[in-house]
Amino acid sequence: MVKKHPQPRSMIFDQIAEQYDTYRPAYPEPLIEAIIDRTGIDGGSSLLEIGSGTGKATRMLAERGFQVHCIEPGANLIRVAERHLERYPRVTFENTTLEKWEISENTFDVVFSASAFHWVSKETGYSRVDRALKEGGYLALFWNNSDNSHTDLCIEINRVYDRCVPEMQRDHNSAQYHIQQREDELKGCGLFDYLMTARYPWQRRYTTEQYIGMLNTHSSHLSLPEEKRKCLYQGIEEVIDRHAGVMVKSYLAVLYLAQKRPGSSAS
Hints:
267 residues; alpha/beta; Rossmann fold; 8-stranded mixed beta sheet; 10 helices
């Protein structure tokens, strides 16, 4: 059963919940295994997920028998996740944000967030996580980053961006920038002992339709004016179709793991 809370803002992903579920990738299995191995959690552990979306990461832990409580502001996203996770009664959902959530103090062995923590207020987010964790508990944050390659196909797609949306910055070093930024945030909040950053390169194969569908679940693309988005997608479709209608996209999944510092809980 979903406990209802007022939704503070309309989230763009909630408006495209089915498309998000269809086209967004999940995460590499070794990343999930690393969380389990490094934290030592087992079937008796309690996990909290921040921004569970349609349950892509949730499923990977539910299938391993873990109890997961999910907080997610998107009601449509929750409905899709519940459909996928109906066989897992140890997964529960609460329709709220971390900022508005009524904190269960010192309750969870692991708090994790998959491609969502950048939406959380940094002024209060880390301290609220700290309060929810048991002594010695862990915070695991992870994202899929685009791992830009220099294949002919990718070079041609970058030219389409330059032609149709030159204002959209496509920094080939952006993944490394985000990695450093996220490490600095965790280390600088003063509540956790930073343990590690682990990188997991992986690939996913897309048809032309699937690749355009995936792009259309990103806020940066959805917010483009219609004519620019049409130019971009048509150009990308033509490029992929010239390459046998297949796009093999490289991702770099990055895990950031930290442990609650003794006596750190904020009031």
